[in-house]
Design brief:
With 196 residues, the chain is an alpha/beta fold. It is built from seven helices and seven strands, in the order ββαβαβαβαβαβαα.
């Protein structure tokens, strides 16, 4: 509020500016089938404006840190999948710890939020969350593939050694070692993933 010589002259409203990366993140999350919910301590009007401009599924405003934690606990209890929480402040640390996956913004984030997070985004670009999810899914698929291939090859070698009495031990050792090298190389291909 502004007063001139003790007389009310007007007021100034300060609002956060929505980053373009936030819009990219929300669009990317929706494409992945992820529901979005904003928990904020901001006033209802400002929070609703941000939620509408981003196209969020839910928005809860004027929350204290404990309120955020309670709402998050409700989401976790009623979940049909994993619940991630993204924050950057000291008041976000309890919720970051509680979530299945806690994400902190490392550049502008508080040390407490960063220390409690499972994932830290160092350049404060929220759209990197979408990349992280895609890389995690690709990594999981690669791990499952590696396990299935290893089990099939080991089972085949075991069957050959049982049913072929003259099956050389050297062939089994080479198959095992060669398989290990191939699976490690297959896993290393993930390093070439820059942006999905």
């Amino acid at each position: 509020y502004l007063a001139v010589d003790g007389v009310y002259a007007g007021y100034v409203i300060l609002n956060d500016i929505v980053k373009k990366e936030s819009r990219i993140m929300v669009v990317g999350l929706k494409e992945l089938g992820v529901k979005t919910c904003m928990l904020t301590g901001d006033k209802k009007e400002g929070a609703a404006s941000v939620a509408t401009s981003l196209g969020l599924d839910e928005c809860h405003s004027e929350l204290l840190p404990d309120d955020k934690r309670k709402l998050l606990q409700e989401k976790i209890s009623a979940k049909s999948g994993y619940v991630a929480y993204v924050g950057d402040g000291i008041n976000d640390a309890p919720s970051i710890t509680l979530a299945d996956v806690g994400v902190a913004m490392g550049g502008a984030g508080s040390d407490l939020a960063v220390e409690n997070a499972d994932v830290v985004i160092m350049n404060d670009d929220p759209s990197k969350i979408v990349d992280a999810i895609k890389i995690a899914k690709k990594t999981k698929a690669k791990a499952v593939t590696n396990i299935v291939v290893a089990l099939v090859v080991k089972l085949a070698i075991m069957m050959l050694s049982i049913f072929l009495p003259g099956f050389p031990l050297l062939a089994a050792v080479l198959a095992d070692t060669g398989l290990t090298v191939l699976l490690v190389v297959n896993s290393l291909l993930l390093l070439n993933v820059k942006k999905l």
